[in-house]
Amino acid sequence: MPLFNQIVDSLLKCSRCRMALLPVFVSVCLTAIAASAENTVTPQAANNGAATTDSLSARLDKVEAFQARLEKVSPFIPGISAYASVGYNYDEDNTSEFYVKCARFDIKGSLGAKLDYRFLFDFYKFKCYDVRISYKPLKEINITAGHFKVPFTIGNGRGPLTEEFITTPLVIQRLMGFTDECGITGGSGRDIGVSLTGTLWRHKGLDVVSYALGVFNGNGSNTKDDNTSKDVTAKLSLRPLKGLELSGSIYHGEYGPGFMRRNRWSVGGEYAGSVLLARGEYVAGDTGGRNSDGCYAQLGVKTRINLTPLVRFDSFTSDTDVDATERIYSVGLDWHPIKHLRLQGNYSRRTFCGFSGENDRNQFHFVVTAIL
User: Looking at the structure, do residues 7 and 92 belong to the same domain, yes or no?
Assistant: First the structure.
């Protein structure tokens, strides 16, 4: 017995042992109580116990029936998420302001194995971003109709939660419907139309060759068409290695009642590894006979504390026949201190080569995003 007592004392002094022995202790106590109850049960108590057992069994049957009904409808219950971003912007052109970047409510769901939908709405701007329905008869074919991102360039597919920097690259803003060279403003790289996407070759879990084709109004986000022509897009993506994407895309269209030419093309690549993030693209366009081009390249390094330092170079020339180029040199931090919080900070040096009336200037952006 003294040896047994010494062993017990040693185990109890160890916190891990106490936690391990706790379930055993509780189990022994419950067994002892149950055994004592069995030895002292009266006939009346036995009858009451039987009635209680029957009542519990009936309740359990109801719970199981409800669970079965719930399992039938659960595939159709939509996933709901939301996020809101607020920030501060300082620009040496006499801009200093706090602002609300977005407050979005996202609903995604399915109406079966081959049909799904998405509804993305910004309550602050009171504006619809995504309203679409997708039908997937095969892995190689996905038909989407509604209002959604135009499949042009890699960068245009990014959003507030997936773009590492606070702002979209300059060349995508100017040639993809954000503040477009053709005059479209207030857009978000979205349009109303139909797209056909899919994977042509899948190997070891990688979509090695995938494509995207689309037909759109060509007049920007949430805007009715003002001519009878439709804009066409095509994108081809190659993923030879995990995390690596090489992509090329074209956009052919006309805008305005005068059917002015609006053509674009792009080529670029992206690598998203466990530590290194890199993305770069070259985009060129013909807007009513005026040629524009630009590029961007950015690099980020993930750390163990979910903090990603970033650098990016932006360049855009509105008219290649005129020696006037706008460039932005940026550094930034993208930090997720906890799961539902994101903090971003960017410093940019904006330069204007060949512009009259524009001075080089510094810019600071800070954004806080809450994710539900």
Answer: no
